[in-house]
Amino acid sequence: MRGKTALVTGGMGGIGTAIVQKFVENGAKVAVTYHRDPKQALSWQEEQKKLGREVVISQADLTDFESAATMVQDVIQQLGKIDILVNNAGVAEDTTLVKMSYEQWIKVINGDLNSVFNVTRNVLPKMIEAKYGRIINISSVNAQKGQFGQTNYSAAKAGIHGFTKALAYEVAKKGITVNTVSPGYVKTAMMEKIAPDVLEKIIQQIPLARLALPTEIADLISFLALASSAYATGGNFSMNGGLHMF
Predict the structure, then answer these.
(1) Spatial separation of the C-alpha atoms in residues 171 and 173, rounded to whole Å
(2) What's the whole-number mean pLDDT along residues 85-99?
(3) Which one of 87, 145, 158, 199 has the largest count of C-beta atoms within 10 Å of its C-beta?
(4) Domain 5-186+213-239, classified CATH 3.40.50.10790, yes or no
């Protein structure tokens, strides 16, 4: 990835940080987004610097098209270009549909699906101009199999792969690939907050009998971000420990 630049949305979470680590190790220059808390973002940036990772940060409300546009221009100003885009940011508001408010529905559709449009639409013209790009959209196993209490999340994440396939067709002859990665349950700080008995029931459903490591997800994303992955486009790459096979 030497000479390449990457933008990772939601890059400060468990999976996002692992992606950043892998990209930096492979020689890429990396920018990540944050939304509300500049102190927390600066603290994360400083922590990465202590680990030898120089990472650019840029503020944005990814549910707002103009805010996303401003962020993309800021990243290009700092890094010069964007060769690789990882749409990793997302939110969840779990409840059954009969109890779900319109606000809960639209928050997840905006945060998980519309944000992908907002960022990609602003990054894409420069990729087309450069005749090169790698776009990786992060979906979920629950978009593939469905999940109780996640009609909003499952719909948004399933929509992401529809977006991937259509865009892959549109840019196939422009040196740009577009792929989806659909992780299963990953060992992050968020998962570790789940009650032990509930977590054990989740793990019992996974044939490999464990959670994924963030680094495992990052390794797959890193492969799809390489120049040498040029023949992979429009795919949905599952990494769920066998939880959903198809």
Answers:
(1) 6
(2) 96
(3) 87
(4) no
Separation in Å, CA 238 to CA 89, 195, 221:
18, 26, 11
pLDDT the model gives residue 119: 98
Q: How far is CA 135 from CA 6, 123, 187, 195, 210, in A?
A: 10, 10, 24, 35, 29
Q: What is the number of residues in the chain?
A: 246
Query: What is the pLDDT at residue 185?
Result: 94
State the Cα–Cα distance between residues 163 and 155, nearest whole angstrom: 12
Which residues does the annotation mark as catalytic? 153
Do 113 and 159 contact (CB within 8 A), yes or no?
yes
CA 172 to each of CA 128, 230, 233: distance values in angstroms, whole numbers, following the listed order: 10, 10, 8
Tokens of 3: 């000479």
Tell me the pTM.
0.95
C-alpha closest to that of 106 among 118, 114, 95:
114
Mean pLDDT value across residues 10-23 = 96
Task: Please say if the pLDDT value at position 76 is more than 80.
Answer: yes
